[in-house]
Amino acid sequence: MAVRNRLKEIRHDHRMNQIEFAEYIGAARQLYNRWENQTTQPSLEWVLRIAKRTGRPVEDIVYLEEPG
Predict the structure, then answer these.
(1) Within 13 Å of residue 29, how many CA atoms lie on the same side as its CB?
(2) H or E stretch including 65?
(3) Are 44 and 20 spatial neighbours (Cβ–Cβ below 8 Å)?
(4) In the 8-state DSSP scheme, what is residue 31?
């Protein structure tokens, strides 16, 4: 199982580009880009910040990808 995120979908729901959304959540654009491209995953602290800022539950932001 791997941890994945739905940041791209959430960003699209907010109708923002990557730079705008990174600023909106308070992250550096380069860091946000790595999260959205699934290169790395946001820490628990970042997930909680994003959840608070966007009004989404944590489960909407990150999830476990089942093998197969």
Answers:
(1) 5
(2) strand 62-65
(3) no
(4) H
Compute CA distances 16 → 22, 25, 38, 40, whole Å: 9, 12, 19, 21
Cα separations in angstroms, 49 against 37, 66, 68: 19, 25, 31
Dihedral of CA 59/61/64/66: which sign? positive
CA 29, 54, 28 angle in degrees (round to 5)? 15
SS3 of residue 5 by DSSP: strand
What does the pLDDT look like over 2-61, one tens digit per residue?
Answer: 999 999 999 999 999 999 999 999 999 999 999 999 999 999 999 999 999 999 999 999
Q: Which residue is listed with tokens 């729901």?
A: 13
